[in-house]
Amino acid sequence: MDRHLRMGTAEVVSRLRSMADPRSVEGMARYGISTGNALGISVTNLRKVAKEIGRDHRMALELWATGIHEARILAAIIDEPGKVSRRQMDRWAKDFDSWDVCDQACTCLFDRTPHAIDKAVEWSRREEEFVKRAGFALIAGLAAHDKAAPDEVFAGFLEHVKRESDDDRKYVRKAVNWALRQIGKRNVRLNGLAISCAEDIATVDSRAARWIASDALRELRSEAVQRRLAAKRPGARPARYRKS
Q1: What does pTM read for this prediction?
Q2: What are the distances in angstroms from CA 160 to CA 33, 58, 155, 157, 171?
Q3: Where are the domains of the chain?
Q4: How many other C-beta atoms lie within 10 A of the C-beta of residue 121?
Q5: Which residues contact residue 158 at a Cβ distance below 8 angstroms, ignoring those fewer than 6 apart?
Q6: Which of 63, 158, 163, 226 is the most exposed place for a label (fewest CB within 10 A)?
Q7: Class in CATH terms, 96-244
Q8: Cβ contact 65:45 at 8 Å
Q9: C-beta separation of 74 from 46 below 8 A
Q10: Cβ count near 159 (within 10 Å)
Q11: What is the pLDDT of residues 98-139, one digit of tens each?
C-alpha cells in the first residue's frame, strides 16, 4: 500500500476494536497472558493488519501509547528497527506486563536494533520480572535471527544464563531456558558450550536451575538437534552426541 493511502493510527485502533473477540480473551488468560486491556486478536491476524500498514515508526509509537495489548504487539511488528533508540527500548520494557508482548517486542523488533546486545546484557541483570525476561528473550532472538554475530557474543551470553539460572520466577526461568536452548542450537561449537553450561547449572542448588538444565540438555543432546547441527557443518563431529 502506498504511504499516502495508509491508515492513520486512530483508524488502525478502530479496526482493532472491530476485530475484538471476548472468547479469545478468555483463552488468553488461560495461557497466562495479561488481559486487562486485551481485545482477543491473534498474532496471525495482527500480522495481516501489519502487512497493510507497512513499516511506520511514528505509528508504532502512537499504537504503543494506547496501552491496548494487541496495539502494542502490532507496534512491535511495524516499527523500524533502525529508528528505535535505547530510550524507547527502556520505556517499552518498563511497560511490559505480559510475556507475549515482551517476547514479540524482543524477537520482532529489539533484536534487530543496533542496541540489542547491550540491552540483553543490561536487562539480564535487572530485578523486574518482565524486564529480566526481555533480556533473555533478546538473547534467544539474537541467537535465532542474527546470522552474522560471532560465536564469542553467544559464548559471552552463557555467563548471564548461568548467573540467573536460580531465579524461580516462572517468566524468568522459562526465558533463561529459552536463551540457553537457542544458543545451543546455533552451531556445533555453541552446542558444546551450551551443554557444558547446562551441566554446570544442573549442580546449582535451585529448583529453577535444575529444571532449566534438564530441559535444555534434553533438547540440546537430542538426536534431531545433533543431526541438524552436523549437517550445517559437514564433517564436524556433533558435540557430545548420545544416541537415544
Answers
A1: 0.91
A2: 26, 34, 10, 5, 16
A3: 1-79, 96-244
A4: 16
A5: 180, 183, 193, 194, 197
A6: 163
A7: mainly alpha
A8: no
A9: yes
A10: 12
A11: 999 999 999 999 999 999 999 999 999 999 999 999 999 999
